[in-house]
Amino acid sequence: MNDRARPARRQLTSPRAAALAGVIFALLFAIALVLLRTSLPETLAAHADWSDSAITTRLTIGLALMPFAGIAFLWFMGVVRDRFKDAEDQLFSSVFVGSGLLFLAMVFVSSAIAGGIVASAPLIADDQSRLELTTFGRAVMLQVSNIYALRMAGVFLISLGTMWLRTGVMPRWLAVITYAVAIVLLFVTSLSLWVTLIFPAWVLAVSILILVQNFRRRTGRVLS
What we know:
Layout (H helix, E strand, L loop, with lengths): L19 H20 L13 H30 L7 H31 L6 H41 L4 H17 L9 H26 L1
Helix pairs in contact: 1-2, 1-6, 2-3, 3-4, 4-5, 5-6
């Protein structure tokens, strides 16, 4: 076959609108988190009324949104990594990808445990057995989400902020804010579960900034 007849290969680039994935993740994750936090007590000493249809409805909706938030987060990671191009550092990039995937995996595990509680609690007739099951499940869920997942999110932000500082891909002030958010996720989230919302807020801010930069770049090319 003649080489001239073969179609020319084009370099695969990420769509400019792909940063919308970060916005979608921030909204879905925040909504799911609020629904879960308002349905389950923050302390193990308090007991949730699993016979209350309003509680189970909020939990079901929150758990249904979480997988789609995870899919959007994977796209967000791809968009952020794509901006480094050839300037990507392999060491910090490995930590960035690994911590991001671990964060997402543990969020899914925590959500799956909550889903198991919702599905199995109504089937247990004995009140004491139901209480023991739900208490253990909530303890594991809180450990996975608040201790391990959020710490991985902090490592994710530290590695990303370091790459931004070293490459200049994003503004220096954003890297400084990223370090501050990482410190909050590493140390402050143990004081209040609602501090977790700072992570989707950070993703939303970064995604909007990337969208604005992409729009300005495209506008500049059209004018030139």
